[in-house]
Amino acid sequence: MAGKRSLWKRVRHRTEYLFYRFLMRAIPLLPHRWLSPLARAGAWIGPRLIFWEARKARANLDLVYGDRLTKADKESILRESFGTLALTALYFFWAKNLTKKSIQDYVEFPENVGRAAEEVEKAGRGAIALLGHYGNWELMGVAVGYLDCPPLNVIVRPLKNPLLDESVNQYRCRSGNRVIEREGSMMKAVRVLRRGELLGLVFDQNVDPSEGGTFAPFLGLPAATTKAAATLSLRTGAPIIPVACDPLENARYRLRVEPPVAFEPSGDFDQDVQRLTEECNRRIEAMIQRKPGAWLWMYKRWRIRPTVERGEYPVYSKPERRLRQKAAS
Q1: How far apart are CA 98 and CA 76, in angstroms?
Q2: What are the residue ranges spanned by the domains of the chain?
Q3: Are 22 and 263 in contact (CB under 8 A)?
Q4: Which of 23, 130, 141, 193 is buried most, with the most CB atoms less than 10 Å from its CB?
Q5: How far are the Cα atoms of 58, 99, 123, 206 from residue 81, in angstroms, in the given order?
């Protein structure tokens, strides 16, 4: 039985890789003006075609908004979220057409982006770019790489399909960025910051407490959150700067660089890490509340919970690893 599963996985991975190669050749041939209509089509077709993802999104929307929004309002956010994901995916392949000269035709760079880069370079402590699954987070990385600023190093998780890992990371590095594998990333991240470079960290991902996470409030319910940003900032003095790629009309974006996360350490390191992590969550929350449809509502953000009983958590949630191990023993 295990052999059959292994064979099926190899076949599936190979099929995904071949489809990926096809899209990498086909999508860049499309005119840019086609991207927006295709994304709108994805917004309507996606919830019906990928219904299991829509089910997770609806569970998250019910959790966060409850009766404060009507079903129609939640469905509107759901469709917009699918459209956001569709455009992000299309740009992933179409970005082969982007150059340092042409990037500004598709991404606006406010004046404060340059000033922020100068301040980071002048301070010499590097900076942590606080990112979320919001807007076009992949294009944001490519765009920053084309700016005249310190190199951007992004901590990434390996993909489930190893055949795609190298190709996807090549995309992420096409404008001069670098990727850091999550395994053993902390020491590499410290070296990046001490060189005065930028460290990108997608913050709204689940990290079990046994793997360096903690539970911090997020949109009304504690979520398993990485402590990496807070730990690195407190250890190195590097500021944490929220960065987003806001969607505009006609498949264009605006890069947004917010003021650094304000924080005054108390001297109790563990307590400071917890408090700063919670403040980072609040900054990601503010992004989402500003434009809910730009966030990836299909993501299982509350997949890990701190209790055995499900309580208010979505049906897809499960207890943190230590609780599962304790129950098993």
Answers
A1: 31
A2: 2-328
A3: no
A4: 130
A5: 11, 27, 37, 19
Cα 8 to Cα 3, 14, 16, 160, 164: the distances in Å are 9, 10, 12, 14, 17
Task: Render pLDDT for 73-85 as a digit per residue (tens, 0 to 9).
Answer: 999 999 999 999 9
- Write b or e for each residue in 266-301: b if 16 or more Cβ atoms lie within 10 A of its Cβ, otherwise e: eeeeeebbbbbbbbbbebbbebbeebbbbbbbbbeb
Sequence-distant (≥ 6) Cβ neighbours of residue 87 within 8 angstroms: 35, 36, 39, 42, 136, 247, 251
The answer to whether 78 and 297 have CB atoms below 8 angstroms apart is yes
Give the β-pairing of 221-226 and 213-218: antiparallel
Mean pLDDT of 129-141: 92
pLDDT tier at 130, thresholds 50, 70, 90: very high
Q: What is the pTM of this model?
A: 0.91
Instruction: Assess contact for 208 and 184: CB atoms under 8 A.
Output: no
What single letter denotes the amino acid at residue 87?
A: L
What's the token pair of residue 244? 């987003």
- What local confidence, expressed as pLDDT, does residue 94 receive? 94
Element (H, E) at 64: helix 51-65
Q: Which of 145, 70, 131, 141 is nearest to 100 (CA)?
A: 145
- Please check whether residue 198 is in contact with residue 120, taking contact to mean a CB–CB distance below 8 angstroms: yes
